[in-house]
Amino acid sequence: MSLSNFFSKDLVNMSLKSKNKEGIIKELSELLFKDKRINNKDSFIKDVLKREEELSTALEDGIAIPHAKSSSVIKPSVAIGISKEGMDYGAMDGKPTKIFFLIATPENANDLHIKTLSKLTSKLLDEDFKKGLLNAKNEKEIFDLMNDNSKEEESTIPSSTGKFLIGVTGCPVGVAHTYLAESSLKKTAKEMGIGIKVETNGSVGVENIPTEEEIKKADAIIVACDKQVDLDRFSGKKVIITGTKEAIDSPKSLIERSLKDDVPVYSSKGNRNENLSNSSKEKVGLYKYLMNGVSFMIPFVVIGGILIALSLAIGGKPTPAGLQIPEGSYWNKILEVGAVGFKLMIPILAGYIAYAIGDRPALAPGMIGGWIANEGSFYGAKAGTGFIGAIIAGFIVGYIVKWIKSWKFPKALQPLVPIMIIPILGSLIIAFLFIFVIGAPISSLMASLVTLLQSLSSGSLVVLGLVIGLMQGFDMGGPFGKVAFMFSVGLIANGQTQFMGAQACAIPVAPLGMGLATLIGSKTKLFTKEERANGKAALAMGLVGISEGAIPFAASDPLAIIPANMIGSAVACILGFLFGIRDSVAHGGPIVVLLGAINKPALALLAMAIGSVVTAFISIGLKKYFNRRRKQKAALA
């Protein structure tokens, strides 16, 4: 694809006036907006600045490459700015930055777009190219420089010294740093006479993967990544693990260090943290493993929740047994598809937590463990453990697999270890633990909770509302919420609809509260772009009484979100009892009000709204508190 699709003479500013990072980005964004490359300048600028917070895009030698994937981008583009005097952009070498490449990438950009834009940034490593930009007299000269493809990179750099390295690069966005690190390593290795092949883990996928033969002959492996990649294939080789920034800024010292005798040999059987450089250790831990599972789970939550919400909202009919969709109808099929999404989200969460810890051999047993955890019938419980059980199963499986990988297997069995022996052993162990060890206490706890609710049902409504609300908000459709729900449903047949009425007010609080929190906190940087998108989906789910919409938030930050959900749900439930709300169907949320199943619709909506606001503000407050604590700990570390 021609570069003219991404760049034009109208996207050049040869005399930038701003003296700070935000000002530079605004000036270049203005070019993109005027050229109709972006449709919302303010939104795009926010996305670029957020990317800057994750990892500075300032390189050495006076270059910066601010960039972002954004829904505001109409077509992939590059804007170039030159500051003759330069400004402090935060470069590691302390020198002023003079050349700025602002890369705008659509969220749905195809592979060819990404590769063209990413390879374009490798030009910045060419000294002649940089000098040409600074000395250009007009926009045409810059345009000609950008379109000069006379220096094409080789996929593998041959060796003249007998030394051969393998590099692996990857950054979170996968647009700029991934390919800059690749080009930097290849350019420097070529100058040193050292052969190298560099695998890139960009947004278009994994490219230039080294073969087993290449890995065997490699003198060392340089993993310059800011995200997780498969390391087990390098077991037995000298491996240096660092970030893309070091590969870009100091490739020569990195290559020289990789060839020294004291480089640790990576072992897939050992503790992975012992094989990491200091720069990567901080990125490894329980939170990273948890977020790996959450990120894979989110699409299933959204698919399941939105499809169920649509089917209930459009095709649902209020009945004593709850909102029902006529059998065989179109919307009943949509409901079933949504149910599949919800059914899969729990094993997906467990499986990818396990995968983050134990790599591919842990994926299957992790998913099986998550499925068993969510199916109470395996261990005699009326309800499974929900997302909390999935998290527990994922971590148990991950560390079990890691332990099994440390065993010494006969050479004849080693090919079967990752694809058969470990998955089977891991699955059997987690199944045994949940069915015979963890399951019995869970089953007993569920029975005790039912007894507790029965004993409270004749007492104070405030106390009962507090307990039901706390249970509903704790696990959002998990065992605690289900026990409370089934208790309330059972009383509908006896004509006691006030219990279901109060819980109907609590059911939507968690998703509505988290959706509201993302809207309120959008300018405070408390929630990521992905979480803000999930917040909109959570709002839709909350409106039709699907509490699972809040699960991704609770799973990613349980200390802040679960207490907020519990308190808000308890407030709504107590108000439901005090307002005398009655619900004749086994469901909750605003949709039940709209369908006429609630006796006091205005008061019911008021209770839901108050509970949601309480959840939103408590979650924001707790997130601020824990973020401040994390920063203080990081500063002391």
TrEMBL record:
Residues 5-149 form the PTS EIIA type-2 domain. Residues 165-260 form the PTS EIIB type-2 domain. Its main location: membrane. It is a multi-pass membrane protein. Residues 286-632 form the PTS EIIC type-2 domain. It is found in: Cell inner membrane. It holds the Pfam family PTS_EIIC. CDD domains: PTS_IIA_fru, PTS_IIB_fructose. The chain crosses the membrane at residues 289-314, 334-355, 387-404, 416-439, 445-470, 559-581, 601-622. Keywords: Cell membrane, Kinase, Membrane, Phosphoprotein, Phosphotransferase system, Sugar transport, Transferase, Transmembrane, Transmembrane helix, Transport. This is Fructose-specific PTS transporter subunit EIIC. It comes from Clostridium oceanicum. The lineage of its organism: Bacteria, Bacillati, Bacillota, Clostridia, Eubacteriales.
